[in-house]
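By way of example, we now present a protein record of this kind:
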Amino acid sequence: MKPNSILFGMSFAVAANIAVAAEPAPVIEVTAGTMASGTTSSISEQLGSLERKLDARNRAQVNVQRQLDELQNEVNELRGITELHTYQLSQVLDRQRELYQELDRRVSEALKPANQVPAAIIAPANSGDVNYSNNLTENEAYDRAVNMVLKDKRYEEAIPEFEAFNQKYPNSSYAANAHYWLGQLLFNKSELTKARQEFDLVVTQYPDSSKRSDAMLKLAMVEQKENNSGKAKAIYQKLLAEYPNSSAAKLAQPRLKSLK
């Protein structure tokens, strides 16, 4: 009986071991836990990365806004400086206009010849309508030529100075005046041919110049001095027709009568 019992017990043990061996290992549960843990870790990393990117972008936007604010402040400062300089330049140009008007008046007086022509035939300068340049170099060049006549009385040296000015600044707002005063200087030297060219240039090329009526008077005087009575008479008549109320017209009337 004992051997049978032992054999039965061994058979039962073997069967139990086989049954236990046949049980599947909990592989699925371990794998699922690992995957769930890995997914959670991945999402956390992605969220952390997004947070870092958003934070970096926010800091960048703050820096850009600060730079824009600084640039706007600089622009406002520059605008204020520009407006100040514009105002100061306007004041300087206004002062120059006043000075040039006074200079132009005094030049007219200074250029009246003492012996060659009676003072009555010199038309007074009409400088109120002169347009002044914004080019300071151009202003300085014209001022230098005028001062040679007004301050230094260097009439001979003023001639090439005006000639150089006319050549360098042919489209200057002072061009008509410069040609007129050059003609006046040449007229006073009795260089009548050259003077005629300057006066004729003012008459033909600067119809809106305040010096045109004076240039017509001088042009007629040149023709009269050269015994071209017909031409002189025609110019005087044209002057009276175009500028009947001008100072030049008043001076032309007695000269025209003397030709009849």
